[in-house]
Amino acid sequence: MSPAAKPHLKQARDALPATCGRIVAEFEQYLRAERGMSRHTVRAYVGDVVSLVAHLHGIDLSSALATDDGF
Predict the structure, then answer these.
(1) Residues 22-52: pLDDT tens digits?
(2) Which residues contact 18 (CB under 8 A, 6 or more apart)?
(3) How far apart are CA 3 and CA 37, in angstroms?
């Protein structure tokens, strides 16, 4: 089963902004073609990246970035 075939992963990928979706697809292709990773590893990595990007896309980082915490 490809990473996009899992229903919840496909739904999450489809909800990503187009640019993010393209980056995830390129990352998936890199893992398969360049790194030769197994489909299970690719599915796990892509799932983690999709979850992270979806989470970051869903939160408002502007207030956190606007604060000066001395960093």
Answers:
(1) 999 999 999 999 999 999 999 999 999 999 9
(2) none
(3) 13
